[in-house]
Design brief:
Helix content is 36%, strand content 28%. The protein has 225 residues and is of the alpha+beta class. It folds into two domains: 115 residues, no CATH class; 108 residues, no CATH class. The chain has a five-stranded mixed beta sheet with strand order 1-2-5-6-7, covered by helices on one side.
């Protein structure tokens, strides 16, 4: 599924036409170097050889890890993945986890989550809870938050948050039990993503949590009855 194309990009500063390699599709197993560039956040870096101007050049990008059974589609404009009818063209991909993201940071986060063997819905629930703690402690909401690691030996799951009005990220971690509890909440809420490319983010986590709180009293009444 790895694809590479060459396009001419006009430098915004000097106007030079620069032939640039783009990778609309990358297979993690076949292109470990491209995966490394995604993870070190250089995949979308662009520079003009004529004047030295540098910028981030974003374009639709499909990341596929067949060994871990997931795909992530980066859509910078926030649109869907209508042009990629993978279910129709590749029926063997039915059941593969498919996620939609809009930034390279979110793309990197999804890769880290799935490579760690975690459920991204549960990770988003933990992130939502920690963001709430930061809000109470600092009186500032988290403008962004990203999963960083999960370490079973240290019983830790860690995140990096950028608070509104702050330049430096804030690191926070909690016990893996918080993740396990979040997995239980996801399962109780019956949250199953659609088979197409879907976003799983903070709004998803809030929806799952709201549904869990709505259904929990009814379940408790059934047990008592």
């Amino acid at each position: 599924m790895a694809t590479q194309i060459t396009e001419e990009i006009s430098c915004p500063q000097c106007g030079a036409a620069v032939k640039t390699e783009l990778w609309p599709g990358v297979d993690a197993a076949q292109n470990p170097d491209r995966k490394a560039r995604v993870l070190n956040e250089t995949m979308f870096d662009w520079s003009c050889p004529e004047c030295g101007y540098t910028a981030r050049f974003l374009y639709p990008f499909l990341y596929h890890d067949p060994e871990r059974n997931y795909m992530v589609y980066l859509s910078p404009n926030g649109g869907g993945c209508e042009e990629i009818d993978l279910e129709k063209e590749f029926p063997q991909l039915h059941g593969v986890a498919k996620r939609l993201v809009t930034t390279p940071e979110a793309l990197k986060e999804k890769i880290l989550i799935f490579d760690a063997g975690l459920d991204d819905r549960a990770v988003e629930l933990v992130k939502l809870a920690l963001a709430g703690v930061l809000d109470q402690k600092h009186g500032k909401k988290a403008a962004a938050g990203y999963f960083c690691y999960a370490d079973e030996s240290k019983n830790e799951i860690g995140f990096s948050f950028l608070l509104e009005g702050e330049d430096k990220p804030v690191r926070r971690h909690t016990r893996m039990e918080a993740y396990q509890k979040s997995v239980e909440i996801v399962e109780c809420a019956g949250s199953v993503p659609a088979d197409g490319f879907v976003p799983v983010d903070g709004m998803t986590a809030q929806t799952i949590l709201d549904h869990y709180h709505e259904t929990r009293p009814a379940e408790e009444q059934e047990r008592k009855g």
